[in-house]
Amino acid sequence: MSEDSYLRKRALDYHEFPQPGKLEIRATKPMANGRDLSLAYSPGVAEACTEISKDPSVASRYTARGNLVAVVSNGSAVLGLGNIGALASKPVMEGKAVLFKKFANIDCFDIELNESDPEKLADIVCAMEPSFGAINLEDIKAPDCFIVEQICRERMNIPVFHDDQHGTAIVVGAAATNALQVAGKSFGDIKVVSTGGGAAGIACLNMLLKLGVKRENVWLCDIEGLVYEGREKDMTPQKAAYAQGQSPAALDEVIEGADLFLGLSGPGVLKPEMVAKMADRPIVFALANPTPEIMPDEVRKVAPDAIMATGRSDFPNQVNNVLCFPFIFRGALDVGATEINDAMQLGCIEGIAALARATTSAEAAAAYKGEQLTFGEDYLIPKPFDPRLMGVVASAVAKAAMDSGVATRPIECLEAYKAKLDGSVFKSALIMRPVFEAAATAERRIVFAEGEDERVLRAANAMVEETTDAPILIGRPDVIALRAERAGLSIVPGRDFEVVNPERDDRYRAYWGAYHEIMARKGVTPDLAKAILRTNTTAIGSIMVHLGHADSLIAGTFGQYLWHLNYIQQILGNHELHPVGALSLMILQDGPLFIADTHVHNTPSAEQIAETVCAAARHVRRFGVEPKIAVCSYSQFGNHGGDSGARARGALEILDATPRDFAYEGEMHVDAALDPEVRSRLFPGARFDGPANVLVFANTDAASAVRNTLKVKGGGLEVGPILMGMGNRAHIVTPSITARGLLNMSAIAGTPVAHYG
């Protein structure tokens, strides 16, 4: 099977299996009994209807309309396929709806209409206003798309956005902004030559004028050559607005001295000899899909310093509308905008362009592993899977909507709004906020044992940019510097953070001497101490904390948990500090769930279980959560007499012997802990209502199994594990941790002990 045939089969299978299409509808409210039915439909639904009839603005409170977009097409200009009709366009529109949901959590219906008359098509779209919070027009041929959009924008009081025009123009605007910065040029001085007078091409030129390009410096060509005054063949009012001169000319004649070529036409339109006529450091945006106006390698042969962008994903700088449309709609919907105006589009451009100039996120780096994601000629715009797009772009759009007066539901605090958006993308953001706020009250030195790991480097970069804590990395300075540069990070060893080199460090003698002093009566000779402090970075980090050269250690990005714990306990453990247990926070769709002890004590005694319960209560409160702790066992309220049940009951007796300021109950199964109805049937009068938010198990096998099941099958995001009992002096992560997970752990380690007891 050829590669093309294989790709075709995979694409068709993707659309057909396991069920046809890419969309389904799911209810957001329970429908399990007659009570639910009476609320969802008759008679309860009448209450919501009555409220909306009295005040139409509350429709966004009682229905999905405020988060619902219609993607509308008549199939007259679908991708590079042309006028294939409404029905054949449906896979594309379904795909657009999926992108809305994936990237901005916006619900979407795709609507394909058999209507070729632009005015009638506009009438149909306008009639749908009660159903939707916004309209995304898609794949409607020019000039019909201009007519449809103009009518809809004039008659409708919700945002109407033709993505083929404005989405493309926004991403081109962001890419051009950064390309000019790289080339050392400005919008007001450049000559622009464009091919293609369709919807996207005209919209891009209009946007470039708004960004500062002078109208007299724009030359538009199409299949008939230069658009000039008096030309009659294949002209539209939109093209005529860019007429240049009064006589015919070919692209080859007008390209000379051009700073920017903007192609939205067809394959092979721009020849290498034309590129050679362009200005120094030419900018070539060849955006025809799937084959651009000129291939990047052809450009490089005649202009090695050219800055290139295409519409393809297999070359740098893909101009992809997904960088824009989900987030401009997100911001517009959230403030109840009545339209998407120029100010909002410019705000979107500024947000996208600025994000590309910032340090690349760890999540984007993971999604595009192996690609160089450092701002420059090959990285002008961010990648679609950069999760920061939501917060940066949508909040910029919302602000522009409010500033320009089109927002009907203004947001009081944009900072809180951005944090909420980030929280919807970074699942740990909201639950971690109290921890980061507490950590910001002090400047603590956090030493990372595995400082050469790229995840550690990204976490350290984020710490320098976003927190008051100071990272210290253990590793070889040249390796750290090389890997930071390769990852596109702005941090520099020695300038932004301290490096401890195991191979050569002035403190080596003091470190091995301190370790030998601690371990001399435990079989460690001076030679062994020297060897360990040359090779064991966890021991080095622990000694640094012991000597006051660092405040907390983070280790464990590789290796076995108990191996790291052994050295931490040797060096930092004492009569006051000892490992109590490991607490893992699992962030689930319906909220946080804490699990302990996942690593430390394989079969904890009753005393150790009780100690874990008390420590967990303290740490859970660090997240702004009031603990409801269930002691879990295979025994349920005394119905089994085995070992784990006995130890769990013993822990309850210890806890009951002293007044506690937190809620706990046990011993019980996990279902009784999480389902209050089950618990009330089995044990009426339990000590707390509602589901438990902390599960403490009688052995690590059970705790670890639940943790991993929730992570793999339940889509849970883990924060931790948090090593309890060591006074926040050390934490051991697991090898699967991400860069953001390490940043979260640095905040936990960076919180002064006084904040949690």
From TrEMBL:
Metal-binding in keyword set: yes
Keyword Oxidoreductase: yes
Binding site for NADP(+): 78-85
Cofactor names: Mg(2+); Mn(2+)
Keywords: Metal-binding, Multifunctional enzyme, NADP, Oxidoreductase
An example Gene Ontology biological process: malate metabolic process
Occurrences of domain Malic enzyme NAD-binding (ranges): 165-402
PANTHER family tied to this protein: NADP-DEPENDENT MALIC ENZYME (PTHR43237:SF4)
Family recorded in the similarity comment: In the C-terminal section; belongs to the phosphate acetyltransferase and butyryltransferase family.
Protein name: NADP-dependent malic enzyme
Organism: Aliiroseovarius halocynthiae
